[in-house]
Amino acid sequence: MLTSGLAKLRGIHAFDEGASLPEWFRRQFHSAEPLHRYSEAVRTVGGMLGVAFGVFLFVLFAWVISTDGTPLVFGVPAAVIPLAVFGVCAWSARAFAQWPSLAERRTARARSERVFAVGMIPMTSRYMVLRDAGVLFALGQDEEPAGIAWSRIEAAGVSSSQFGVGLTLSIDGDWYDVPIVLEVGGRAASAWSFAPVGAKAALMSAVEDALRGRVPLHVS
User: Fold this and answer.
1) Across-strand partners of 99?
2) Share of the chain above pLDDT 90, in %
3) pTM, to two decimals
4) DSSP character string of 135-150
5) 50-68 pLDDT per residue, tens
6) Candidate CATH numbers 2.30.39.10, 2.40.50.140, 2.60.40.10, 2.30.29.30; the one for domain 5-44+95-219
């Protein structure tokens, strides 16, 4: 996470049941039906990563063919270098997914709050903060936080993917899909986890545990 947006939430405890949701919250999360927007986001991100990897391989093979094999760089076949760089980048993305959120993790632990990063990738400035009275959604440091009392949430549903957990909320008759990529200081989506085996189920379990008993919850 690139901002210290959690710091701005200090002292915010009011959850007005009659307050309208901020426009940014409606714009980013409103869904035509439960988990529809999240499913589209998963397909889009997965497709983009697949296309990017396909282009990478195409360029690599075209380079090898055009050089009549592959030249040597310090005695190493040049084609191995971009493959090694790709592998290191993929490993780093998983190993250090939590590093940008160290400040947020300290803030969450100091307040004994459960905080989840909202988005499809770990580098995000959006947060979901669970409190006794309700749930807070924050977008960076410049937008007004959205505070929603638990009693205002009519139903909630969760579904998992390799990019995290899709949380859908029924609020005032409308559906809002919130993608959760990791718990601050906790589990990350399998696509970004250093230990991807079981990570998908672990993050799903963390979200379920945080919500169970607070709102009517459906797991798919």
Assistant:
1) none
2) 46
3) 0.84
4) EEEEETTTSPPEEEEG
5) 999 999 888 888 888 877 7
6) 2.30.29.30
